[in-house]
Amino acid sequence: MSVSIVKTFDHRNGVSKALELIENEIVASIGNRKKFLIKPNFVSTRTSLAATPVEAVEATIAFISSRYSPSEILIAESPAIGSFRDGLKNFGYYKLRDLFKNVEFIDLDEYEHQRFVLVDESNREFEVYVSKLLLDKSYVVVSPCRAKTHDTVIVTLSIKNIVMGAIKRGWKHEMHKGYYSINYNIAKLATHLMPDIGIVDGVEAMEGNGPISGTSKKWGVVFASTNPVNLDAVVAYAMGFNPMDIGYLYFLWKWGYGEIDISKIRVVGESIESIKTVFKPHSTYRSQLSWKNTAMKLGQLSP
Length: 303
Known about the structure:
By secondary structure, the protein is an alpha/beta fold. It contains 13 helices and 12 strands.
């Protein structure tokens, strides 16, 4: 599937154009479904640079509403820090209910969850509880997020936004059992939770010690795709990282969920090289790469 790239310093315009460039693929991805679930990133409800810009979600809803006659539009999240309602207030999301019909705000922690048993790098089992709403395939799931660096998995983009947000509060910390474990288990959960449409807003991104304490990077680019693996690989490469170094993308690629070899991904709009930059990585970047050593010992990575 294609990845669209738009140069802009306007969140709304960028998201709209990025979606328009892949509209035929979006139509195919949606099929006959009329219910939409948009899952922004509120990892911290107090830090606006850590959150999905409301303008990006507004443009997403405008695109959906003008074309697909949605029967409902859910905006749903389970923040890691702070309450969902604080995020809606602090980031200006309440206005979306006034701008569009059928918009409803959903705190994922207040709805049903499904138990998943995962395994860490020492073959010890642990459990997490995942939102049944995000597992419900009757919804078109959209993952709009900000491009950010990360403290354990190098970058946090459209896939990680869905996976970590799907896990019930009080269980998210279970994913943090080492660099290999978090990458592998994000990938495992992503096989059940892959969004239908991914959007990465890099108009103002975060570099350095993300996903909360990093600094602003005025990049001026927006990406979108109906294949989040392709999307996140292109964005990671454009941020100056090697997609092969990002464990969860590597595993999903090996399992056949998408492509991370940039030369094999179709890009529409701007070229990758025209927007490629260098993000300052997290201070633990070198340590984060150690997932590869574990994967190699387990026979999951070629030397």
